[in-house]
Amino acid sequence: MERSSDGRVDAVKGQVMHKISNALRNFSAGRHLLIGVPYLWFLLLALVPLLIVLKISLSEMEVTSVSSMISWRQGWPTLKLNFSSYLFISSDALYVQTYLSSLKYALLTTLICLAIGYPFSYFMARSAKHLQPTLLMLIMLPFWTSFLLRIYAWKMLLVNNGVINNVLMSIGMIDAPLEMMNTPFSLMVGMVYSYLPFMILPLYANLSKLDLRYLEAAADLGANPFKTFWLITVPLSKAGIIAGAMLVFIPALGEYVIPELLGGPNTLMIGRVLWDEFFSNNDWPMASAVAVLMVLLIMLPMAIYNKYQSEQSGLNS
Amino acid sequence: MSIAPKGNAVCEDLLRVEEVTKIYDGTIKAVDNVSLTVASGEIFALLGGSGCGKSTLLRMIAGFEAPTQGKIFLAGEDITHLPPYQRPINMMFQSYALFPHLTVWDNIAFGLRRDHLPKEQIVARVESMLSLVQLSQYANRKPHQLSGGQQQRVALARSLAKRPKLLLLDEPLGALDKKLRETTQLELVNIIEEVGVTCVLVTHDQEEAMTMASRIAVMSEGHFLQLGSPDDIYEMPNSRQVADFIGNINIFDGIVEEVESDHVIVRSADCSHYVGYGMSGNSGRAVGVALRPEKILLSKEKPAGKYNWCDGEVTEIVYFGAYTTYHLKLNSGKLIKVQTLNNARDLSGNFSLGDRAFAQWSDLAMAVLTQ
Amino acid sequence: MNSNMIKWCSRSWMFAVYFFLYMPIVTLVIYSFNDSQLVTVWSYASMRWYAVLMQDSDLIAAVVLSLKIASFSAIISVFFGILTAFALNRYKRFFGRMLLSSMASAPLVMPDVIVGLSLLLMLVSMQHWLGYPERGLLTILLGHALLGTAYATVVVTSRLREMDGQLDEAAMDLGCHPWQVFSLVTLPLLLPALVSAFLLTFTLSFDDVVLSSFLSGPGYSTLPMVIFSRARLGLNPSINAVATVTIAIVTIAVIASSFYSAQQERRRKREQAQAYSDANT
Ligand SMILES: Nc1ncnc2c1ncn2[C@@H]1O[C@H](COP(=O)(O)OP(=O)(O)O)[C@@H](O)[C@H]1O
Ligand SMILES: [Mg+2]
What are φ and ψ of residue B228, in 5° steps? Predict the structure, then answer.
């Protein structure tokens, strides 16, 4: 008895569901919803905000709403554009220098990470197979602990009365504390420390897949280990090198927290300038203009990377 | 290879595909105006090289793709626009597509539960399927805990559990290694026949199609080249493409010299062919004469008569164990293959490289290819 | 150069890198047990700063706020991440697909300061027009959810890519309506990816300082904001204590989960081997 009523309910439910699904199919509402909802989400939170930044960068300090930028001339809306922020940035030596030094530090970070990370990834990929998961986990573990706390730890180590100086003085290697904090040195230590895993992971992923037979073939053809390394291993891991470099260079360029905590007054970086323009000077158009130029700076390596990737996929297919 | 017709008692048409065309992205014509009927109880094979559109045709029957043109009927009902979950058709996928998060038991019960069958009926059906494919003791395993052959049987059981009117098999043995394939082929046919389900299968392997199907459609570039029983297609290919695709074959290019109701004479560069059956068309027409290597007899003496023999030099001998293939270079420079069974233990009568040899065959051994 | 020397070189190089990565963390933990007010001058071991931590109401409020924001943000991120990944994975061509995929990856490449600034300016304009929302928990949540969605999309997409596309069709073939395909097949198979997406986005939110600083209003300080403001002023023993607590929690969780997954993997391999040997006997 009970089963049959259950069965009927199920049948009715099935029919209703069926009708709904048919409706969904016919109007392809499911498809519209599935595409539309995330679209709206990102449009509102990713694209519109960037457009607003662009808009504000082109307005004067007091003007911060769209309506006041559009004037009505003979019935036609006309956009008042104001390039004063950009003119100021490009004429001010300090800003130009900041952009250049950001580039310099990001590039330096990338190169040092590569110099440390490449041999490391190579050795890791060649180490015993059963050890590799653990070695990999040890590289990823710091990811899960707060970035801020790890930077703070370096501050503790590097300040004048910090741990390193204390240890060196107590064993008598130095008489006076080394000036490490608030210098380009402390900045680079913090940057390399934070971004090294981002270099190691793609390199390791690439090198661990490298077919050892190529190396054997090269050795068989008479290349010595160094030649083999330069002529076979390095070119074959190009994709890993490029991926790692992108993962380090781009975030390093816009870094704010590390220069703020470990850098000094003369280690200029754009992220910090943007922050100061916004929070200290309350100059929104200027902060926006700095942001727009920063985006342009980042788009350049991205575009090169995308071009490289599409070429690669073209080669593969 | 002579095979008795397989499949169960054949009655009326179950599946009818009418002038179906599928065009992808407005340009790629995957299936081109194909029509076919499959009788109830039949095992029908779509055979063709990769990219010829056989999977597309199967997927249209299953309901995963909609035809650009044409109609599909199942038991007289138009199912062209029915979604897959409303068709009484089940498919066994090439990758098996077993649900990795479900046990063997739950995989087989999956389709039955969607029909809201009473619980006892589901249990009974699953148990009978498990014993059909001899996997009862593996009911509680997950798919990854099974070997490839066992996974294939679970996939089969799952697609049979709902007792579909039509079973579709997409490259059913494609994922198995060669040794397993041969035993599995027969097992599969036995199970299908036991259940008595009508079946359409897709394969690129001609031996698989020959051993499993009662009828075969040879496909190329979206259309059917030939449709017939396995021995029809093997013995009487209707075109060079089919002849080339199915097994090894020698083709002599020639001109028809004489056409009668009971025989045809074709003249090629190396010999005259007397074909023991008639054909339509006039003399003077260019045709191909197809001749299977195993139908040729090799001898050292010149045969009597003027038809159906030629001579040449043995240029290569390939020993396969059960048989040996000789490559014969004819006087015109044409190469033909001859296969002889090694049924004598003493191989002294065989040929060696550089020997002159005569090849002869009977007047029913050839097929005339007009296209 | 013989192979022993190469081995020695590689070992010491790897050791040096691990030393570089872990030395600051270990120092941080050790000095959290230093009784001295001066963080880096060791006096004697004590739990003094943990006791102080218990009394620090600012810090405790910040932890509570951070936990709240991180949980909500992770849930929202995973939800929108699923939608975005499905839209991009299932529909290969629709109007503006390119735009959606670049918008979804923009937060991954944009520096935090730009994401923070742009969201803030958008929210300010919105408030200007609609009088809503006030800056506070909700605005921080939006920022974190945006960043989290971008990461969750990557995680879910990579799982969807490696899933057998025929599974959906098999489900439909066996009588599943489209939403049943999702709930009975796709969702259970996605579950591990959803769990890792949740953990990742939770951690991202719990760690973020830049977005929160731009988007928060008076009275809303997340834990990283409190730590950052103290760290800017100098060394502070309370930070060491907080650090040690979080590092302990994270380390235990990560090690436990990796042991668990390694065990699962071993079991899976064993069972697979068993299946093949069964089949062959
Ligand atoms: N979803 C699709 N979109 C576009 N083209 C397709 C699609 N599926 C198949 N094709 C094309 O249709 C043709 C036939 O494919 P298919 O039926 O899979 O061949 P087969 O199974 O015989 O190897 C091929 O050229 C293939 O590239
Ligand atoms: Mg196919």
Answer: 180, -175
What's the gap in Å between the CA of A19 and the closest CA on chain C? Answer: 11
Q: Is B24 in the pocket of ligand 1 (CB under 6 A)?
A: yes
Ligand nearest to the CA of B94: 2
Sort out which chain C residues have CB atoms less than 8 A from A120's CB and list them: 13-14, 17
pLDDT for res B122: 93
In this structure, the answer to whether residues B276 and B348 fall within a common structural domain is: yes
Rounded to whole angstroms, the Cα distance separating B265 from B274 reads: 5
Distance from CA of A236 to the nearest CA of C (A): 21
Q: If you average pLDDT over every residue of chain B, what do you get?
A: 88
Q: In whole angstroms, what is the distance from residue B294 CA to residue B2 CA?
A: 13
Among A154, A167, A186, A175, smallest CA distance to C41 is for: A167
Find how far residue B292's CA is from the centre of its chain. 17
Ligand 1 near B25 CB (within 6 A): yes
When pLDDT is averaged across residues B343-354 and rounded to a whole number, the result is 70
- Tell me: pLDDT of A77 over 80: no
Backbone angles phi, psi at A102, to 5 degrees: -60, -45
Is there a single domain that holds both residue B46 and residue B74?
A: yes
Would you tell me how many other CB atoms lie within 10 Å of the CB of residue A183? 17
- Report the alpha-carbon distance of residue A16 to residue A14 in Å, rounded: 5
Q: Does residue C151 sit within a domain?
A: yes
Confidence of residue B112 (pLDDT cuts 50, 70, 90): very high
* In a domain? residue C105: yes
What is the distance in A from the centroid of ligand 2 to the CA of B244? Answer: 20
- In this prediction the ipTM stands at 0.88
Q: Which residue among C166, C176, C268 places its CB closest to the CB of B85? A: C176
Residues B173 and B301 in one domain: no
C19 falls within a domain: no
In a domain, B7, yes or no: no
Neighbours of ion ligand 2 (CB under 5 A): B 55
- If one counts the domains in chain B, the total is 2
Residue B233 sits in the same domain as residue B332: no
CA distance B74 to chain A (A): 21
In our burial notation (b when 16+ CB lie closer than 10 A, e otherwise), range A272-310 reads: bbbbebbeeeebbbbbbbbbbbbbebbeebeeebeeeee
Residue A240: closest CA among A211, A201, A200, A202: A202
With beta carbons less than 8 A apart as the criterion, state whether B22 and B250 touch: no
Please give the single-letter amino acid code of residue C108: L
Residue type, B66: A
C185 in a domain, yes or no?
A: yes
Q: Which domain holds residue C188?
A: 57-242
pLDDT at B4: 40
Helices (H) and strands (E) in chain B, counts: 8, 20
Q: Which of B240, B272, B299 delimits the end of a domain?
A: B240
**Rounded to whole angstroms, how far apart are CA atoms B268 and B248?**
20
- Domain encompassing residue B283: 249-369
Rounded Cα distance, A208 and A187, in Å: 32
Q: How far is the CA of B55 from the centre of ligand 2 (A)?
A: 4
Here the tokens at position A215 are 């190396």
Q: Is B260 helix (H, G, I), strand (E, B) or coil?
A: coil
Question: What ranges make up the beta strands (E) of chain B?
Answer: 13-24, 28-39, 43-47, 69-74, 77-78, 89-92, 166-170, 198-203, 215-220, 223-228, 250-259, 264-268, 272-275, 286-291, 297-299, 309-319, 323-330, 335-341, 356-360, 366-369
How sure is the predictor about B207, in pLDDT bands with cuts at 50, 70 and 90?
A: confident
Rounded to the nearest 5°, which phi and psi values hold at C15? -60, -45
Instruction: Give the residue from B213, B240, B267 where a domain finishes.
Output: B240
Distance CA B59, CA A142 (A): 49
Whether B265 and B194 share a structural domain: no
Structure tokens at A192: 């390399």
